[in-house]
Amino acid sequence: MADAGAGEDADLCQQCGHPWGKHQLCGYSQEGDVPREGWVTCPAEGCACHQTWSTQGGSPEGAEAAYQRFLAERDGKGPAC
Ligand SMILES: [Zn+2]
Ligand SMILES: [Zn+2]
Prior knowledge:
The chain is built from 1 helix and 3 strands; from the N terminus they run E-E-E-H.
């Protein structure tokens, strides 16, 4: 995403085509710290779109692991974020 100035609803997710601005950015924080890795999910019903993200200090592998953990917890007791 090079253009950050566009309106939220003008941007569509490249994976699923739903409005990108409605996607949820999630992550597990570590001991009060801000998350360094996590995932993005689409709120549209039945949409399985997901992407992972990581910043300095995080890793793509950790982000994927966090997403898998989120899935496991969601199936057990509802969304974690
Ligand atoms: Zn979607
Ligand atoms: Zn999407």
